[in-house]
Design a protein that fits this description.
By secondary structure, the protein is α/β, with parallel strands linked by helices. The chain is built from six helices and six strands, in the order βαβαβααβααββ. The protein has one domain: Rossmann fold, CATH 3.40.50.1240. 38% of the residues lie in helices and 22% in strands. The two termini are 26 Å apart.
Length: 157
């Protein structure tokens, strides 16, 4: 049974002058990017039934724009662990997802999101992961065993 892992970098955030990084909000451009990703995922037939989202303000706002456009309300885990995670830690969060979940969306930050995507898609992902970029990875294993080499993917936008 195939599982789909969607890896998304948050949309464009404001510069955040005088604001803590964690509290940076999306810019107007970022809000539009999030909506475009929602349309893109819908057009491609992706419908996440679970989400892991960094608890930073800009990732939550990105997710809100994506899901609002898609008209979906899956279970969402907002976690500071995704904000602070390196690639191995982020994949570890994935391994705890309920095996019944078929499509998982992870909304996070660079360089971690690009590094995890590159481990499935190839090193071109490192340069291609600008704000609001999404990679789709088709896993051949349960979430518990998600790791580089257990699936193949592509950058969607």
């Amino acid at each position: 049974m195939s599982r789909t892992l969607l890896l998304m970098r948050h949309a464009k955030a404001e510069d955040g002058f005088g604001v803590a990084d964690f509290d940076r909000a999306l810019s107007e451009k970022g809000r539009k990017q999030a909506e475009r990703v929602g349309h893109l995922l819908t057009e491609r037939g992706y419908a996440p039934d679970h989400v892991i989202c960094s608890s930073a303000k800009r990732t939550g706002q990105t997710l809100e724009g994506v899901l609002g456009t898609m008209g979906l309300s899956p279970e969402v885990d907002h976690t500071e662990a995704a904000y602070l995670a390196g690639p191995e830690s982020l994949l570890e969060l994935v391994t705890f997802v309920d095996p019944e979940v078929r499509t998982l969306l992870v909304v996070g930050h660079n360089p971690t999101i690009a590094q995890v995507a590159a481990s499935f898609v190839g090193h071109q992902a490192l340069a291609a992961f600008s704000p609001a970029t999404v990679a789709a990875v088709e896993l051949d294993v349960e979430w518990l065993y998600a790791a580089p080499g257990t699936g193949t993917g592509q950058i969607l936008n």
